[in-house]
Amino acid sequence: MKFGILVNEGPYQHQASDSAYLFCRAALAKGHEIHRVFFYHDGVNNSTRLTEPPQDDRNIVTRWSKLAADHGVDLVVCVAAALRRGIKDENLAPGFRISGLGQLVETGIQADRLVVFGD
Amino acid sequence: MTAAGPKKFMFVNRKAPYGTIYALESLEVVLISAAFDQDVSLVFIDDGVYQLKKGQQTKGIETKNFSPTYRALDGYDVEKLYVERESLEARGLTEEDLIVDVEVLGSADLGKLMDEQDVVVSC
User: Fold this and answer.
1) DSSP codes of every residue in B44-74
2) Which of A112, B24, B43, B66 has its Cα between 20 and 30 A from that of B57?
């Protein structure tokens, strides 16, 4: 099955990003396809490479980057939500790209299922 | 599942218009999806019904009153607006209190409607 993923919450504050990541990893392991992960609302904060969690904690941002590198998953950050929160190309982590909300609608159209993670 | 032609997109609004940014940013997605010629509907549940409340005044909290945008949805061919009856009643509101024409449905009927959708985006 082809999944689209929507992440609506920031990292660490909320479990949504962890759950979305674990869902993606499990789906890929089962042979499913992740068409795109779209980051919206505070979810855009998952994409900044300035993130530095304590060493004994998971690094949510690099974990997403690795998922993109290993499986070619398209990580898209909403431009309007990103600019509002100080996320720009210059502080974007590897594997992420900034684009418009049309990318969310498009994954809703292209994917068999859109799964939303957030409050 | 990837059908030709438009998909049924339903946006479920569950949060108050102010206090968090969910309502404001969600409205942006609705407008974009309308531009993609999809079959778009909106649902207002829980505190989400307050998004449509008449007479919103936001000067005191120094944020933009974006409620007039709901009136403009018509111009984007977004005409299916549903409000959950139970949520209205629990808050002492009626259709008369809302800034746009809506269809008021009970939660069971809304559930059936959700079941018919291809994409449900909720926040």
Assistant:
1) E-GGGGGGGBSS---GGGT----THHHHHGG
2) B43
Which residues of A have a catalytic role annotated?
Answer: 78
Q: Do A109 and B120 touch (CB under 8 A)?
A: no
Please name which of B3, B1, B20, B23 lies closest in space to residue B12, comparing C-alpha atoms.
Answer: B23
Which residue on chain B is closest to A4 by alpha carbon? B119
B51: pLDDT confidence band, cut at 50, 70 and 90? very high
Residues in chain B within 8 Å Cβ distance of A116 = 120-123
Which domain CATH number covers A54?
Answer: 3.40.1260.10
Q: Mention the CATH class of domain B8-122.
A: alpha beta
Subunit contact B1:A113, Cβ cutoff 8 A: yes
Q: Residues of B39-53 as b/e, b for ≥16 C-beta within 10 angstroms?
A: bbbbbbbbbbbbbbe
ipTM: 0.93
* pTM confidence score: 0.96
* Residues spanned by the domain of A110: 2-117
Q: What is the pLDDT of residue A87?
A: 98
